[in-house]
Every structure is written in C-alpha cells, then in structure tokens.
Amino acid sequence: MSRQIINASPPAATATMASPTLQPDPDKYKDRLLKYIPGEIIALWITGTSVLTENADKFNASWHWAFMAICAILCVVYLKLAMKVDKPIQLVVSVLCFVVWVFTLGGPFLFLDWYDPIYGQFILPIFTITVGFIKP
Predict the structure, then answer these.
(1) How many angstroms separate the CA atoms of 35 and 121, rounded?
(2) Quick check: is 108 in a domain?
(3) Which of 115, 114, 101, 113 has its CA nearest to residue 68?
(4) Residue 121 domain flag
C-alpha cells in the first residue's frame, strides 16, 4: 500500500479497449490530510521522548534535539521506502507535520526560553486545517 498522494488522473488516451488502464481517483482533502500526517513517526517520537524525559538526569536538551532530527530523517526514509512516496513536496510537508507535532508537545522546544506551550496550541489546529489543501 502506498501513501503517495494522487492528484488529478492523467488523460486516459493511452487506454485501449484491449488493455484498459484503471486510473485511481484523485485524493480529496481528507485523504491528503491523512496521508501527510506521519503517525508512525509521531508514535516513535512519543515513545522515545518519554524515555528521555523519565531519565532527565542522563539526557540533556541535546539528546532531545538529536532525537528530533533522527525522527525527521526517519520520516523521509520510512515514507520513501516503506510507503512508496516519491513526491518531494509530500515528503517536506510530512516532515513539517512531524515538527509541528513536536512543537505542540514541547519536546526540545521546552528548553528554549521563549517557548510557551500555548504557541503549539494555536499552531497545530491552524496547520492541520490548512495542510490538507496542499496538492503536491
């Protein structure tokens, strides 16, 4: 199964009566939204960050930033290899989705003086509503 977002179908001029090619329907807003959100990577983040937080005496802010970078890289690798996504815009948007989730949950941003969790509470719903309109 691919998580590749399907845009408008190309013209069916190549299809013949002898060998019809079925073109999948283009993804609608909800389909694009669900395909953008890297749920598996967010689950990895939640699991890993709970380990870092429970062992705060052993792991400083650098560990949190490094883990976030690793998860962002794994997001691209996972989507390309396992989910067969090859559209660069979709990969970038999925990584942005991950970063917005991390920002909302706090993660390494909690170590920054300017960070306030209320920022994420505003950004997440706005981002979630608008991201589904992006057609890669």
Answers:
(1) 22
(2) yes
(3) 101
(4) yes
List pLDDT tens digits, range 36-78: 999 999 999 999 999 999 999 999 999 999 999 999 999 999 9
CA distance 75 to 79: 6
What is the C-alpha to C-alpha distance for residues 71 and 75, in angstroms, rounded to an integer? 6
d(CA 14, CA 21) in angstroms, rounded, equals 8
Length of the chain: 136
Sign of torsion, CA 120 123 124 125? positive
pTM over 0.85: yes
Contact criterion met (CB below 8 Å) for 18 and 104: no
Taking only Cα atoms into account, the Rg of the chain, rounded to an integer number of angstroms, comes to 19
Could you tell me if residue 62 is inside a domain? yes
| CA–CA distance, 86 with 102 (Å, rounded to integer) | 24
